[in-house]
Structure formats: C-alpha cells, structure tokens
Specification:
single chain; DNA polymerase, domain 1; 2 domains; 9 helices; 8 strands; 40% helix; binds adenosine monophosphate; binds manganese (II) ion
C-alpha cells in the first residue's frame, strides 16, 4: 500500500492547487491520499472532483492548530464530513485567530521598519488564509532574509518582531470537532515540536486520554529512530499509526508525495478504519 495522508495546497501554505496535488498523488501511484490544509477544508471539493476524474482514492482531511500545555501542536483530522457545523465552526474560530494574528505580525514588522507587511503578504496568497509561511515568503522576497529557516528564527518566532502568541483551543476540544464530523484525530509529526522525548510521550498519553485516535509514525523527514520510537509509543497507548509526507510543494525541498518509509506495524494502520 502506498499511502500519503498529510498534504497541503494553496488553500493554506502549499504551492499547488488541490487539483494539482491530487494529480501528483496519481502520478506517484498512491493507493490512498488526503489533502490536509491548515485550519480549512476549502480545497476539498476541487480535490474530490479531480480524484473522481483520475480514480484516486481521496480521504477528506484537515490539519488543525491546537494547544497542549500552552504549546502549539497540530492535529490532523481524517475522514471528516466537511459539511459538519461543529467542525466548520471550529475552523472559522481558528481562521479568525489567524486573521487577528496576521494584523499583529504586520504591526510587529512595521515597528521593525518593514512597511505594508499585511498587504504585501496578502498579495502573495491565493486566499485570505494567511500562515506564517506567507509572511516568510514575503520577507524573503523583499530581501530581509535569505531562506525559510533564518526568516522564522529572525522574524516569526518568540520575541522577534513578528512573533505573536496565539491561544488555540486545547486538544480535547479540537479532537471533539473532528469526532463530531465523524473523523479520526491524528497527532501530527510528533518529533517536529521543540520537545524532549519525555514530553512527547506525555503528550501522547494525554492525547489518548482526550480520545485521540492515532499518531503520525512516518513523515517525509522521519529518521529510523523516530519511526521506531513513535511506533512503540503508538502501541503502548493503543493509538493507530498514520503516515504522511507533509508535502507543501516549496522549491528547494526534496519532499515528494507518496515517498515514505513503511510503517513498522501496519496491523494498526489508520487507513484500515477510514471511509473511502
Ligand atoms: P502557522 O500555522 O501559520 O503558524 O505556520 C506554520 C507553518 O509554517 C508550518 O506548518 C510549517 O509549514 C511552517 N514552518 C514553521 N516553522 C518553520 C521553520 N522553522 N522553517 C520553515 N517552515 C516553518
Ligand atoms: Mn504548513
Ligand atoms: Mn504541521
Ligand atoms: Mn502540515
């Protein structure tokens, strides 16, 4: 089985349209594919149309920003009913937080001498969903930084000019939105947060306690050690395992749709429990 359950389009911070990413998944021979934009399911209708044309098995999805112990983490919802009101009310809430944050980022950058940041960033985005990636692109384009890594470090995190704290809803509430929409809640890329292994383990215990369903055991950047550890923790907590590339389509990145290492234990693979 070739499965990729974590991908972005330009409805959040990806480069390509939903239709284009579905096409890439077909070219990569994926047996199962999900579009999981940040805090929106707006791209799903277009993705489904192309998936039907190409006979791609598409799972509806979304990647929702959430809080665990006052730290931002990401929860992927898979197999959600995109018309569910509870889910959509939750996503609208997060979209509103993003709009407020975008204004604050812009103000912070203005104080640092960078004018019209909001307008310039909005001009780069295909939708009004602004992520920090859009601000990063703008800052690189305007010559303030040379690459993504340095722009996040110098401008978009912590106490830096465009570092803004957002209070997302806690994991129990976000898991609730996904369940209300009939979906499975997957803790995304456990090793991508600035957390010690002990913290990650505690996060997974808490995630199970709030009825989370699974954890992303394999992402495009996972090392063998990370895969083995997260698989072990998934088993210990009776969580399903998932895999996804977190493809955004940015240039200078080697991440490709469907190019993933195997799950160590696919007996508890989440895709056995997804409608498609
Ligand atoms: P946001 O959800 O708007 O805060 O933006 C988070 C997104 O920015 C993540 O999904 C990544 O795609 C990207 N991102 C976050 N930190 C970094 C970083 N240090 N370097 C490159 N991209 C990053
Ligand atoms: Mn992203
Ligand atoms: Mn993420
Ligand atoms: Mn992602």
């Amino acid at each position: 089985m070739k499965v990729d359950l974590h991908n972005h389009s330009y409805y959040s911070d990806g480069v390509f349209s939903p239709s284009e990413v579905v096409r890439f998944s077909e070219e990569a021979d994926c047996d199962l594919f999900a579009l999981t934009d940040h805090d929106t399911t707006e791209g799903f209708v277009e993705a489904q149309k192309t998936a039907d044309e190409l006979s791609v098995k598409l799972v509806s999805g979304v990647e929702i920003s959430a809080f665990w112990r006052n730290m931002t983490i990401h929860i992927v919802g898979l197999g959600v009913d995109v018309d569910n009101d509870i889910l959509q009310d939750g996503l609208v809430h997060n979209q509103q937080l993003r709009k407020e944050r975008a204004k604050k980022i812009s103000l912070g950058l203005w104080r640092a001498g960078i004018k019209d940041a909001l307008e310039k960033t909005q001009a780069l985005s295909k939708t009004d969903m602004l992520t920090r990636t859009h601000f990063a692109q703008m800052l690189i384009r305007e010559g303030h930084c040379k690459d993504m890594k340095s722009v996040f470090r110098r401008y978009l995190t912590g106490k830096k000019p465009g570092g803004v704290r957002v209070e997302w809803k806690n994991i129990d509430e976000v898991v609730g939105w996904i369940h209300a929409a009939g979906g499975q809640a997957i803790l995304a890329h456990p090793f991508r947060y600035k957390m010690t292994q002990t913290k990650i383990k505690n996060m997974l215990i808490d995630f199970k306690e709030v009825l989370g369903d699974g954890v992303e055991v394999v992402t495009a950047t996972s090392t063998d050690e990370e895969i083995s550890l997260s698989n072990q923790w998934a088993e210990e907590n009776e969580l399903f395992s998932s895999c996804g590339s977190d493809f955004h389509g940015w240039p200078n990145q080697r991440i490709q749709i469907g190019c993933l290492k195997d799950l160590p234990n696919d007996d508890n693979a989440i895709w056995k429990y997804l409608p498609c």
